[in-house]
Records
---
Amino acid sequence: MTRAMVGQAMAMGRAMAMFRGLAALAAALLLAGCAGYTVNPKLTTEKYGVGKGGYRYENLSKVENTDALFVVLAFSGGGTRAAAFSYGLMEGLRDATYKKDPAADPRSLLADVDVISSVSGGSFTAAYYGLFPDRFFEDFEPRVLDRDIQGDLIGLALSPPNWFRLASPAFDRIDLAAEYYDREIFDQKTFQALVDGKRKPYIVLNATDMTLGRRFEFTQEQFDFLCSDLSPVTIARAVAASSAFPGLLSPLTLKNYVDVKCGFKMPTWIEGALKSKALAARRYVRARDLWTYRSDEKRQWIHLLDGGLSDNIGLRGPFVALTSDTGSSWSVKQRINQGNVERVMVITANAKTKSRPKWDQEQAAPGLFDVLGFVSTGPMDNFSFDTVQLITNAFEQRQQAWKARQSCRRMLKKQCGGDLPGKLAPVALRAVEISFDGIADHRLRLRLCMEALPTNFSLPAQTVDLLRQVARHLLLTSPKFHDAMNDLEAGWEPPESAMDPDLIAAVCPR
Amino acid sequence: MNEFVIVKFADRRVVLVDDVPQGYNKDESGKDLIKELDTGNRKFALEGENNYTPSEQWVEVKDTDPIDPMKVVFQKVSDDGDDPGNGGAGNGNGPGNGNV
């Protein structure tokens, strides 16, 4: 090879290298330019007619699971800890069988679940069960609970091709997470799969509307207010929004078709509620918030964060459905009025932890991270407690009203042979909450260990297994759950629910 | 708040509150069924044939009693179109204008 040829070859090599560099840059710019998520589409009246089609409770089949026994599950936030804890609850419900009558086949209580409302980590469990009920107990653990989701997301964010995509204003960390969930966990399924399945339970995945600081649910009923069609939206985007913890993940954005006429008509209850602020303040605020999506405020883009910011146990939606006759497509009160509901059971899986700060032992004021940690969880823990209490109180008040009528009727009949006006339906109402607080005092080490678990999306397999066992054990040994099951089958006995002492020792060493 | 309301009408009909069906007004034996409703301004109507008056009524539902529920009354319009009386709402033991 001559020197000239060598020189030519070197020049060609440099040119090729430059070409490859330019090609890589062009590809990266192209990627950034193309980067973007699929915007939630407009609702077309041709397809539905607002208020009729899509993912709504009333469109689900009630053949195999009627409304007579209305079971609502609520799954809290808390990353993989919450996902595993709610999964353990589902295992307990699967194993809690009862007979409607002595001659009947045993029926799993899981088959009676009508609605699952979830936030954040609990939304992985709820969504996966909604999509894949037949294989849920086979592959949810390996595909979700044992996966290092957090590590994978960090890896994706650090991957150079994604830097260019993330540089685009139309693509953010939350979209990267949604893509990952879509590909690796939810098999590119959209809400159309839930519509087509027509199966209960109705899955209500909750996020938080950043402007209102209020719950935003991924149901067609909510999307009607955006004049948007939920059906083509991926389940992964809903789960990503529900678990978009601020700081770690960016908010997820939805388009609100404010200037589009999709046939949307203001629900009559909103019209009435907006007129009666003083009379019913809670109802007024609910109506006012919903109306911001269609009002002159022109909220063109709705930014959503972790559902746990407005409701960390997934119970606010059920609270509305249980205590209000309008404003929820699955209003239980409405179904009681219709004579369809005889019993209601609300079971909450609350995977909240408890910090044991050392600042009470020190004169120095807590530092910035301590303060931020408190601000992000402390008030919400109190709010969650209040929500559980509100539901319990509503149930008690309803039972008291029914008992008062019964006593009065007896007295009237005895005194003058008369009767009260009207007939109030007898409805058995039961609320069960399982949380680490319920771990017995003689298992203090286990309770402290569970309450100290971190909130992230990566837990060791043994910790996941123990969380499952703890949740199942807490459900099946809960006195309130026993009472509820005894309503269904007198003398009901729970299945075995012992926890593995070796597993406890391994996860929670002395 | 949980409010307790009876909707009086001659026939057995589904009650619409804010255009949402809330079940029949009475059971098959003719006993009135109590509706549990939210407090507030509520629009009452009946599902089906428009043979009653008023055709709808907005009622302020509040301070009701499970022992003696509020009554919202619809009158049947006779076949020849005569209106035999006005409907209305009121608590059974209060100064309401319930025509029960």
---
Amino acid sequence: MSTVSDAEPVGRRRLIGRPSTWITWAVVAFFFINLAGVVGSVVVKSFSTQWFGTWWPAGFTTQYWSEAWHEFDLSQVLIVTLEASLAVVVIAAVIGVPAAYALARRRFPLKRLVMLVFLLPVMVPPIAYGIPLATVLYKYNLANSLTGVILANLVPSVPFVVLTMTPFIEQIDPKIEAAARMCGATTRSVFLRILLPLLVPGVLAAAVLVLVRTVGMFELTYLTAGTDSQTLVVALYNAYYGAGIRAPQSTDAMAVLYMVTMLVLLVIALRFVNPTQLVTRVADDRDSNA
Amino acid sequence: MTPVTSPAPTVQRPAGTGRPALSHRLAERGIDRTLLLLLPGLVFLIVLFIYPFLYGLGLSFQPPHSSDALYNYKKFFSDPYQRDTIWITLKIGLPAALINVLAAVPIAYRLRGRVRGKRLLTTALVIPITLGTVLTAIGMIEYFGGTGWLNKILIALGVTDVDHPVPLLHNYWGVMLSLLVSGFPFAFLLTLSYLSGIDPSLESAAATLGAGWWQRFREVVFPLLAPGLAMTFCLNFVLAFSVFPSAVLLGDPERSTHVISIAAYDAAYQEYDYSKASAIAMVMAAVMLIVISVVLFARGRLYRGSSGGKG
């Protein structure tokens, strides 16, 4: 990346011409103005006393925030969200990192097939496999519970950890492990004293990405959650879907709570990863030093 | 975790006493105890991904009230209300994915080098993705509504009047806009990362040889970017094809945005007919696979060279 930009003299940009620059930034600005409108409407409404047909609400209050907290039992919802996503992160890391190690270090017959198995759940959209998955979970009485939510969310998370960690482990030089063994280290101490410290940054990045994805995962949680195992995003959807008698401000307050949760997670995530990594499924080592 | 050393069978054998030990021969092909580390992950996915999928496939051929194995599929394709969900979904998903990719290319191309504010822009674009479809839908209900800010602005600008706000909710456009809001940043960031994978010296070389910016884009950058764009389109299409929360909250879920995921959901959770729901989920997966394989087949015919980014 660093050599990339050196090759782009300022003169190049002038060739593209002024109008295209203006159009580009205008499109980007248009997108963000509308995005700000979308997000801003919810935030303003959640604090408003009454807002109908005017540019700005008549007054501001935090009354609906406390109403929302009790009405939707948000402390329970937040606890469930926290439990489910932490369980998913830990289990996905415990299952996924060893598999990534094997995939990064070994070539073996059928490796492509194994890679395909790990790739599919990330490629196929949740709702397509979520329905058969939920059916199976209901059959074994695992759905409608926190267990079901955790199991369902692990399905895309385990492959995600594998796909993020494999390139990360590939760039750890295997000679370090070999050297440790030459010096008489046991498997245990190679793992604990050589591999683990080297793995920590990669595992943290993968974990925080899984956390963001799990808290934001609507479909799989929606299909498997019971009334007392809803995560925040599912509770939010249900509140809107069944809207009516409640003051709209309290559902908006919940929406803002969800928004704040996600943004906090995003800020944490961006300390560990590049923005593009939140999108692309596989860590891009080319961009990581940008 | 026993890499590198497998000390046991390397001892010299007397000539003619047959082949080395099985474990040694396997290790030569890369099969040793390290592969056991794969087992938990593989078993997990077989149990919770492959098995449910096959179970759903089997279930879809076992309709509860009929002995005809293909009953669910026949019913789906003979009932226009059900069958049309495919077209409705394609009609939303294909244009949405196409618009997102087409809008992302010029903007990403402009920003491929070192541009001021690039990090800020990419970070800001992650926000709608992080917020997710549910929150986007909720915000759009407020913002695009008849008394929302957007219509207020349009009325103030004289585009429309108070009695005829621009209808952007509970129809096709609401769903389409929500797919643009969540899909565009996704397409942009992917395209940007593909673009930064293209060696800029190729473009410099073309410039040295006298190519203008359009010629450079069309003959150097675009061919190298095309495989990545195909992938971006596919991933965007997959997202758009499985649109669910926004189709319910922003669309007209009974009619014009009765997408296939709503049909599958209703079959499972309104009618409790898991057999029918599985059949619809299978149709959904099949249609998606067809579109993706068409795109990827076309992509296979494109140039895939060493400098083509992560094609």
